[in-house]
Amino acid sequence: MNNSRNFRDALGRYPTGVAIVGALVEGEALGMTINSFASVSLDPPLVLWSIEKNSERCSIFEAAPYYGISILAHDQSNLAHSCALDADFNACEIRWDGEKAPLVQDAVATFLCKPYAVYAGGDHDILVGEVIEMTTPRDVPALEFYRGNYGVAG
């Protein structure tokens, strides 16, 4: 199989949640929108996400001592869209909390992670993080991504 567009279209039929992962780099908050987030283990608490190897952000996240993952609420599609276009949180107009890594305010859930492992996965790297803190700021439906569009999960 060598048809990337058809593969992406087929994957798009599987609804996913939407999150923003962020790290502090030289005092600046950087981030990106992801939908490759998943749980790995309860003990220790581990999560994973993936990033394109050729991305200039890849080396930044792999070198970060911490990163934050924020699961977006149904009313935060504007944040998801803007962070998909620009890795600078200031340009994304995101308010964030967190001393070790950026965490989106008013997210459905947030996870502060320290790096646990990195695995090669084709044209992406798979980053596994150990969750050291988590919060559930809002009890509202999460943002969903399905067939190229944002919607309400649930």
Structure explained in plain terms:
- With 154 residues, the chain is an alpha+beta fold.
- 19% of the residues lie in helices and 46% in strands.
- The strands form three sheets. A seven-stranded antiparallel sheet has the order 3-2-6-9-10-5-4.
- A hairpin with a 5-residue loop joins strand 7 and strand 8 (103-104).
- It starts with a helix and ends with a strand.
Principal-axis shape: globular
Work out the strand percent: over 45%
Considering DSSP H and I runs of 4 or more, what fraction of the residues is helical? Answer: 10-25%
**Gyration radius, to the nearest Å?**
15 Å
Structural class: alpha+beta
User: How many strands appear in the DSSP assignment?
Assistant: 12
The number of helices is 4
The chain-level mean pLDDT equals 89
Distance between the termini: 33 Å
Largest sheet: 7 strands, antiparallel
SSE ordering: HEEEEEHEHHEEEEEE
* Sheet with the most strands: spatial strand order: 3-2-6-9-10-5-4
Low-confidence sequence ranges:
none
What order do the helices and strands come in, and which of them pair?
Layout: H1 4-11, E1 16-17, E2 19-25, E3 28-34, E4 38-42, E5 45-52, H2 56-63, E6 67-71, H3 77-85, H4 89-92, E7 96-97, E8 103-104, E9 109-121, E10 124-135, E11 143-146, E12 149-152
Antiparallel strand pairs: 1-11, 2-3, 2-6, 4-5, 5-10, 6-9, 7-8, 9-10, 11-12
Characteristics:
154 residues; alpha+beta; three-stranded antiparallel sheet; 4 helices
Quick description:
This protein has 154 residues and is an alpha+beta fold. It is 19% helix and 46% strand.
